[in-house]
Specification:
The complex is a heterodimer of chains A (898) and B (271). Chain A has 898 residues and is α+β, with helices and mostly antiparallel strands. The radius of gyration of chain A is 40 Å and the shape is elongated. Chain B has two domains: 24-113 and 214-269, D-Maltodextrin-Binding Protein, domain 2, CATH 3.40.190.10; 118-211, D-Maltodextrin-Binding Protein, domain 2. The A-B interface holds A 173-177, 179-182, 604, 607-617, 619-620, 623 and B 35-38, 41-42, 44-46, 48-49, 110-111, 140, 168-172, 188-191, 193-198, 246-247, 249-250, 252.
Chain lengths: 898, 271
Amino acid sequence: MTLKKLQEKMFEKLWELVAAAPGRLVAAALLLAAISVLGAVLFLHLDSDQDRLVSPDVPFQKRYLEHLQNFGDQEYIYAVIEVDETAESREQARQFSDALAERLKQRPDLVEAIYYRISATDLGEGFLYYASEQELEGIAAATRTLGPLTDQWLQDGRLSRFIDQLSALLGAPAESAQAMDGEFFGTALGALQGLFDAMQAALEGEDPAEPYLHLEADADQYFFTESERLLVMRLLPVKDYGTMDVIAEPLAFIRQSLAETRAEFPQTRAGLTGRPVLQADEMSTTDRDMRRASVLAVTLVGLFFMVILRGWLRPLLIITSLLLAMAWTFGFTTATLGVLNLLSIVFALVLIGIGVDFGVHVVMRFIEGRHGGMSVEQAVRTALVQTGPGVLLGAVTSVCAFYAVLGSDFRGLAELGLIGGTGILFCLISMLVVLPSLLLLVGKRSRRAEAPPRLVTVSFLEGVTDRSGLLLGLLLLVTLLLAPGLARTRFNYNLLELQARGLESVEYEHLLIEASGESTWYAISVVEDLEQAAIMRQRFLELPSVAGVESLLDLLPKGQERKADILSRALSAVPSPPFAAIVPPPPKGAELYTALAGLQNRLEDLEEQLFAAGAGDELILLGNLLERVTSLRETLSGQPDSAARLVDLQEGLWQEVAAGVTRLHRWLEADPVTVQDLPPSLRDLFIGRDGRMQLKVVPVGDVWQFDLLEAFVQDLRRVDEEVSGVPVTVLESARLMQRTFLSAALLTLVLVSLLLWLASRSLRQVVLTLLPLAVSMVWLLQLMGWLGLSFNLANFFAIPILIAIGVDGSVHFIARWKENGGRSLFSTSTPMAVSLSFFTTMIGFSGLVLGHHRGLASLGAVMVLGSATGLLSCLLVLPALLKLGAARRLKGEEDSGS
Amino acid sequence: MMKSLVCLVAALLLLMPLSVAAEEDSLDFVVIHPGQPGNPVSAQPVMAAFADYLQDRLADVAIAGRYYNRTEEALTALASEPPHWGIVSLGFFIEEGQSLALKPIASTRPDGEERERLYLLVAADSVDDWRQLEGSVAGTMLFQHRAAARLLLETTPEELPFALEGTFHPLRALRQVLRGELAGVVLDRPQFQALQDLPLFQQLKTIHMSAELPTAPVVWFGKPTEAVQPLVTVLQAMADDPQAAGLLTLLQNQGFGPPDPCLADYWEELP
């Protein structure tokens, strides 16, 4: 028995089944769909973890996952605060970051960690080792001046003496230039202002605010970029991989906090970026674009169906059959994988694009039959038996395109291939079993009322394709004219260019790259110990593509031996605790008044010096301080006895200074900092669970550009073959994806060719079927080149779908050509059915062209363009070839007959 | 033989000045700003830091710096210990530059400005024309009377209706103006800018503003040698050197530029 006979028998049996019990078949289909949907609702879940899209057995992915497990998730959201060159702007950026951090700290369940500044206490007792030698010399010089004075005062304890010593200090020449540092000056004036405010309050009988001098306050170092144009906060969001966008809730909270902080500081500009935000924004824009496109597609396709299929009932039957197939696919996915990933979640769109076409062919043939005067049963039977083999072959070729990726290491694609391919098979079953059953059921009920439907054809193309030689010549000429476009077609790997324009996260990623010359990506190299870390760090820094290396070494101060000497010298000048508590005499009004008068003179001298130097900011500070001194003098002059109210303050000040000196003593005598001394929050950033250390290697420039990314990873591998991290993963994933698509496209072609040959046992027919596809692909590439449309990691997915629908169209054309004996092809329903298939795809994807996500928009553009070229090729090239072949055959027969 | 010997001696004679210059092993400097705050002792740490900075960049040369804010003290020191170069106030340059054979080699950039300006301020309810001003006018730059009169009003002290008085306390002088103890105060650009931030400014008015003037020059004492160029290169690079930022702040300067070509004209114009 030939394959054709077998097919005929199989479809006859299928017809018998459908005709015998259409109601029961539909009921069984509905029941299965209900079970599938229920199962999916209960057991199917979404895994939006991008790290699980690639097989964990692939070496680069395996290393990356190991690193993630070893060092924890360190993919930060970056809050980027813009700064201009003024000191006010820097201060405002600091205040902005503090305010934002304060808000974010309210929800530790959403924001796990915030890194944006570091203070001395964060670095532990040995924090002075982090200062430069020059700064330490300044401290040593200051302790030489202040040490003896402090020692004396701690044994005296009188407030008036404290003020006298301040005056003496202000009058004495500074020992070194460091001691004249403006920042130090500002801090000192601020501390004195606090003391004088407290004195004024105490004199007036109020409770003074403690502490008086703020000696415990240590300056925070904020994370400004090297260019000082940005202050960057790193935020670690809590991730939920059970949701589509993983960080939806934390991101919404961070954005809300940012908006509130912006309202508080309207002059400061800030925004979010970093891989998690970019991914979430991408997810949200693609989701929005997909929704809009889907609504537009369903509306337009529905309207289009209603026009072409003359009414709403038959489109509804096709859609119902499609929905049943989709429900079964959900059930299949639940039973086999139990999970949908970020790629396989789009399978529904695939089924709408491809599966609906099967129904179109069946219904169009049904309409043709009814139009030709057939009964409902006859029309359904004809549609099933005559269209069935073509639909089957078309479906199997589409399944091949999807199953071709099954063995891929790109697990996301492999799962999409399994779900998509199986879904197409379910669509096939639904369109060949459920749809005919529904047509029978509906047809029987409305048999009397319904007039035979009108057939819509494209018969005008008959005349066009009759002049096959001329038409093919013209098409060849057009192809040749478009040929230069081929050379312009490119593959763009830049993932940032897939994102929507004007997206805040994209803008701030660009700003970060421009302002700091770095991106938010970094590579990871793992070393065994500090010694190896130092060697590797140096080797990485020598690479031209490396901007910097962050490691544990950055957390350990340099030149600790020399610094220990300086600190030791400074320590010798500082009085040694513990300090014996003393009871100084109560403050006396006259003594204090005189001491304040002396201080006022010194401050006025200082004011003159600052004025002569034009130091406006410091002058204002000093002016404020002088106002307080004047006010204190006035109070003491009017009520000398009120000085007795300063007893507690005098004692508190002594306690504060003693505690401050004790703390300073502890800092000065601290041993050099070792890894073990580092606070866990810092140490854990670089030391993994297995005790090994990671180096974070930051690239130079914009590694979103693929050539720079390739050069960066290539450079790193010369130093460390095992290097990992986001840049490596992105590079390798992109390459793997491209390889997978290419091999899948080739495998699809081979499988489809084999199938076509098995179905026809004719090489000529295989070539005829594939030729329109080849021509349409050439036209697509040429047009893409002319339109400046590049292939990218989002639109490359269009190729297998275009192969599937391209082959499908040819299969139906050839089947009908053979069925009709090569006559009146365009007065049948087949060209319209094929056109409808292409049009539904074009309409379905046209909504994406207007989308904000540039990747999806380009996918829409390629699909629309590819469908258009596929349609033209099917309608013009294939019939022309078929007619040319028939004419030659006829001529040959005539020649042999004569 | 004799001819060769003569040639050798001639060659040695020709090379000698170059060798002397090349072998210069000290580049001591002075900063002379009569009327500016502080004293030679209190300013010594800044001078030492400046010297250290230069020494790091000009290897094999010993550098030490001194600061003077009183003219007589500066002149005495210059006579006993002549430096190689210095930064001097514009008034000092105009009045003493010729006798000390000062040669401008660079210029300062106080507050980043390339030009200086002087302002004559009086109490808000005082006269509007300096020709009607009587009494004394004080200022840090008024210790050199002839130069000050020339720079401020392009005239001589004798032709002024008021007396010029140098002061180390310009802020106090402004308060004295408000109390009627002084007729007016002359401020330079940094002082005038600092005053604008203070409440005091509202009670004063500016009745005259000088033409744009050169900033304080960096000068070489005597005939410049080959050591000038490396020094000027280092000075002019300071504005872009992050390590110099703190030092420049202490020097109340934002960098150094090329010398003002018109400086010597002031010597000819000085009455």
